[in-house]
């Protein structure tokens, strides 16, 4: 018994002289990449830098639920609409209107007036028709193996994207302006309603 206790004590003492072996890092820790936009969060797997303006921003995890191509298509579409909407909203309040009494209203009141005269229903009809036509390209991209990129309708009459470098630059500029326009349109409508004044809404 005494001999066993001596041997155990010596073994414990000897192990103190051996350098500790570092614990193996888990695969999760080795593959961890911080998001560029949110450094305190992990970079979403689907946001791999394929698309212009990708900075790993997905705090709610939408890219783990929906296909990133569909999300980018929606982002570009809403951004383009907001760029036009902001311009139209401000232009109307600066006095650029169509002839006729029904058009001589502020942008805030235009919706109700358009509904009253039936213009909004026509607008809804034509936009729905356009959406159905354009959805064919989205379906081809999503489920039919088309190489089409999100938001690409082959429209470049002034040849802005004549080289791959120019194309990448224009894509980054567009998505940056799209994101800004979505905030800008929300802001301009809110400010116009709160102040009840025309441009610049204060």
From TrEMBL:
Which residues, by range, are in coiled-coil regions?
A: none
Binding sites annotated in the UniProt record for chlorophyll a? 75, 78, 173-174, 179, 191
Q: Name the keywords, alphabetized.
A: Chlorophyll, Chloroplast, Chromophore, Photosynthesis, Plastid, Signal
Localization recorded for this chain is: Plastid, Chloroplast
The molecular function terms in GO held by this entry are:
chlorophyll binding
The record's listing under Pfam families reads: Chloroa_b-bind
Stretch forming the signal peptide: 1-16
Keyword check for Nucleotidyltransferase: no
Quote a single Gene Ontology cellular component term.
chloroplast
Please name the GO terms of the biological process aspect recorded for this protein, alphabetically.
photosynthesis, light harvesting
The UniProt record gives the binding positions of chlorophyll b as: 80
Q: Which family does it belong to?
A: Belongs to the fucoxanthin chlorophyll protein family.
Q: What does this protein do?
A: The light-harvesting complex (LHC) functions as a light receptor, it captures and delivers excitation energy to photosystems with which it is closely associated. Energy is transferred from the carotenoid and chlorophyll C (or B) to chlorophyll A and the photosynthetic reaction centers where it is used to synthesize ATP and reducing power.
Q: What is this protein called?
A: Putative plastid light harvesting protein isoform 33
What species was this sequence derived from?
Answer: Aureococcus anophagefferens (Harmful bloom alga)
Q: Recall the taxonomic lineage recorded for the source organism.
A: Eukaryota, Sar, Stramenopiles, Ochrophyta, Pelagophyceae
